[in-house]
Design goal:
- The structure is a homodimer of 210-residue chains.
- The first copy, chain A, is of the alpha+beta class and 210 residues long.
- Helix content of chain A is 21%, strand content 39%.
- Chain A has a single domain, classed as Pnp Oxidase, Chain A, CATH 2.30.110.10.
- Chain A has six helices and ten strands, in the order αβαβββαββααββββα.
- Chain A has a six-stranded antiparallel beta barrel with strand order 2-3-4-7-6-5.
- In chain A, β2 and β3 form a beta hairpin.
- The N terminus of chain A is likely disordered.
């Protein structure tokens, strides 16, 4: 049995490999953070960064402040990459290729003395190299910043990376095209802000996206 | 004040426009579904489709079955599109352009008699035109399928679509490039499955992604 067949037969699989988890998180820009508010579930998108064995979450919305006001709140954090659409010969067998991590833990605000470090980690995670191109945060800005951390201790990682289930004797109409359409995120041309001079060179952090 | 300035001054805004909500949902392939299990939050990615004024959710994981086993379970469902990275001249003012919907409601399994319709809606939502290219579900397949529905009644939509906050007198170093790097999802070349003949033409549903 080839690796490909093996993948096809068991297309969805969990993995405990920390390298898979770390890469998946390192490629993420948004995480979906779930918590319980007055007995009801709430899910919010937040910016994400990884700092070793903890996940950092950054958001400035009202509900983000709800989270931040707690000394610790139980959360579930999901990070998902949709890598492709899986075309089968039956409607039922259509699927998606994806990598997902679902984390469970307690989110706590990063300590004041660690805030600048945490903000740098999130900024560099989202836009590598940007931190040194721009003005650092002032004490007032840091005071207005909240970053939450969740330890990467209880995580479920699932990966589907395979074609559609099929075999020569499956009774389907094999003249129908089956396969995968891979999906990925790309950057379009940068749009300068109104007061950015037209002769201002694109910095390295922007060029890295092109 | 121009629209652009207005957007820059109030870059994050809610909207009650159902057209914005519908378009945002119609472009989504994955939703993050949060619920409470034994008092703790859980967030899972699920495939998504919109059927008029209800959101349909489809997933086959174990926890999806947890959801499906309930006659009704309170959920929060988030759909987020990351449209761009916002580069400012200070670390603090970096941001992201996005469109997000956060829905609150009770998820219930679609009635057995409606399952085929619901599966068709989700399939056509994810891959327009595919339903008529492939074999329809058998009664056995439908019995093994669960689709959840959530009414689109309590939804919060937020959109940020603007450059970085800036003005001529903001004290920042204006020789630093600021602006937006737009992001979008693209499809790569389709990969045929092992038993798809090399002469099999790409169907219309696949070509639509290219």
């Amino acid at each position: 049995m080839s690796d490909r067949t093996r993948l096809t037969r068991k297309p969805e699989r969990g993995t405990d490999d920390p390298a898979v988890l770390h890469r998946l998180l390192d490629e993420a820009r948004i995480a979906h953070v779930g918590f319980v508010r007055e007995g009801s579930p709430v899910v919010l998108p937040m910016a994400v960064g990884r700092d070793g064995d903890r996940l950092l979450l950054h958001g400035s919305t009202g509900a983000g402040m709800f989270l931040a006001a707690r000394s610790g709140i139980e959360v579930s954090v999901a990070v998902t990459h949709l890598d492709g659409l899986v075309f089968a010969r039956s409607a039922f067998d259509h699927s998606m290729n994806y990598r997902s991590a679902v984390l469970f833990g307690v989110a706590t605000p990063v300590a004041p003395g660690e805030k600048e470090h945490a903000l740098k980690v999130v900024t560099e995670h989202l836009i590598p190299g940007r931190w040194d191109e721009v003005r650092s945060p002032t004490p007032k800005e840091l005071a207005a910043t909240t970053v939450l951390e969740v330890p990467l201790t209880e995580v479920s990682v699932k990966v589907r990376a395979a074609g559609p289930g099929e075999d020569a004797g499956d009774g389907e109409d094999h003249s129908v095209w089956a396969g995968v359409v891979p999906l990925r995120t790309v950057a379009d041309d940068p749009i300068p802000s109104p007061i950015t001079g037209s002769s201002t060179a694109l910095p390295r952090s922007v060029r890295a996206f092109l």
